[in-house]
What we know:
By secondary structure, the protein is an alpha+beta fold. Helix 6 runs parallel beside helix 8, helix 12 runs antiparallel to helix 13 (407-425) and helix 24 packs across helix 25 (666-691). It has a 5-stranded antiparallel beta sheet with strand order 3-4-5-7-6, sandwiched between helices. It has 30 helices and 10 strands. 65% of the residues lie in helices and 6% in strands.
Amino acid sequence: MTVVVGEDVPHARRRLSGRLRAAVLGPHGGGTTRRRATDAFRLGFAVILVAVSVPVMRANSAIELSIVRALHPPPTAISWLVTLLFWLGSAGVVVLLAIVGLLIPRLTAVRHIAAAGVLSWLVCLLLGALLGSAAGRPPDSALAGLNTGYPVTWVAVAVAVAATALPYLSRPMHRLVWLLVPLAVLAGVCGGSALPVNALSSMAVGWGVAAAVHLAVGSPLGLPSAAEVAEWISDLNVAVTGIMRAPGQVWGVEQFTGRGADSERIELSVYGRDASDARMLAKLWRFCVYRDSGPTLILDRLQQVEHEAYLTLMAARARVLVPEVLAAGRFGPSKDAALVTRVPDGLALSQAGDGLADGTLDEILLALLQLRAAGIAHGALGGDTIILAEQGVCVRGFRSASAAAPASRLDADLAAALAAMAVQAGVERTAAAAGRVLDVDTVRGALVHLQRPALDPTTIAALAQRKGLLPQLRSAVASGAGIEVPELAEFKRISWTNLLFGLGSLIGIWAIIGVLSDAGSAFEAIKGASWGWVALAFVFAQLPPLGSAWAMTGAVVGELPYGRCVALEVSNAFSSLVGGNVAVFAVRVRFFQRQGSDVTAAVSSGAIVSTTEWVVKGLLFLIALPFAAGDFHAQTTSGNNQTAIWIILAVIIAAGIAATVIALVPRVRRLASTRLRPYLVSIWGQVKVIAAEPHKIVYVVAGSTLAQLAVILALGASLHAVGQHASIATLITVNTLAAIIGGAVPVPGGAGVVEAGLIAGLTAVGIPQDEAIAAVLIQRVFTSYLPPVWGWLTLAWMRRREYI
């Protein structure tokens, strides 16, 4: 038996105390906290869940009622177990976490837990006041004797307390808490204390409150401090002294540096509790945004360490200088995973400056060619992962690497290296090195991927001060290889424009549902419509392309074939439905280019047509408003009016926020001025040119006016078809307001949003709701939903003729 005596006793006790503490609490990490992007994601997701749950609760769905009947009441034999789980997962968890929180220095956890509990209680009070005690759920005999209240305060408070405390807890305690809380919620549903959807929504309330608290005050990193690593690293049978936290860090992995027995440089990568979350969210982000989502997803921390060690050893086998792997495995009471490597002394490429020799640049590219030959893609090459040591160029940090990598990842590695080299050595010397080392095909592949998404954060930060470096580098490298600059690969799966259109489409779907939900009697009105007026509405609906084509002939210097312009505007019915006003503008610019205009003139002409359309709408509105103002009167808000009001408010608020940001933030104001001024100057120059021919101005204004009046007349004919009528001034006012709403919300074709605005406007001037819905549906089908059919055929024909 071993007896611990003397000075070893305090050390042994300290280690025992640390292991006992680690059984309950996560790594102390020096007390450092961090605001995580995942908390913002969780808060947003919780808000969405709560918003979606309200109409579900009001629906009293048959599925929910079936679940209630299946779970309530529980069998008598296990009612005691249901009650026990209920109290353990609610009050028991709160008491347990309060006791555990006392172990945290300065009672930090207790304060945060108490704040989350109080905030969730206040949010429940607020939701109850806004939505009512049952959130608008209609009475149902099947729910007699059950608690239909919302929110379920005890659920929200228990989840908020538990979720707030989780970052302070060890992994086993994580699992215990997340097991008890859902069981308590299930027991509450079984015992009739909560309905299923009410309970789930209340869990989302608590979850969101905890995320908000973490965003406000931060949460522990879940990673050991340098002192904790120094104390426990001997578990991996390596001796490291002078352990310090490295300056550069990535989420989920803590980097440390130290010295070995012979004073050699040692690096430690510690994969903490958040490593799995970081890897999963990074994979999810890349999958959603980029076409290549990166290496295979690995959730286990030990497997992540083994993956990095394996790829490092494979790179060494390919005769590339890499850090020597000393140890890989779990250590310490929290069982964090760590990779320990011996790294050659030397400067990182990002610290090299202008002292780089041409031979060193060649060595960097040769090392990458060796990795390429072995099929290894690094995945995160940059100024910090390339070390310039006496032994040669060393590549480190293989945590994002992949074996048997596709050619696109290998090309992206070369592109990242070229950009990092150019930041330090300049464009000319980097291009010269590429010409000496790389063949033409390799250069072409690298240039295709030489863009920001392929670069590491260090290089991207350096490029912020050198905006034109990447285009210059592409041109110089292509010139050195004797090839044309190739088109860039499409890295991103979605863009901000697509994201906005997706959000707008959701708004449009919501608006369409609001329109159709009250359209039962409107369909009867459509069946009884006067088909002569319906036919006239169809005729009017086909006239706008004729007016817009006339406007296009006046927006350019010289003559344009009117027939081709008509075909273009017919095809734009399809372009508008697919991509909105942005797509229409792009197609017009392309058409002008095909007809002989240069890029500047084509963009200016397209802008003139688009701008004139909105100016004409505004002028017609201002002229008609005094004549139509007396027709509008207050109405009780129906579902459709509420939809339109919410959309109008959202548009006004968004416009106000944008205007305020541009006016008050100098950087944004300068950016807007820098981006817009050249286009405005170009457009004004084009206007002055065509103003030399007065008939051109007439064409633009008259064509745009006729196009707008045709749409308005189609709405008037649709009203006559269902036995209603309104003055032309009223129709102009209603149509213009709806068009403004549809143009401001990024919905392709204004689908749903324009309908809601038109119906709200017509009902406000006294048109019965059923007839208003019927008339709007007739007009919109003829102006927006049928024309894309022949618009698509016309677009295909124009592409075959190379008119666009």
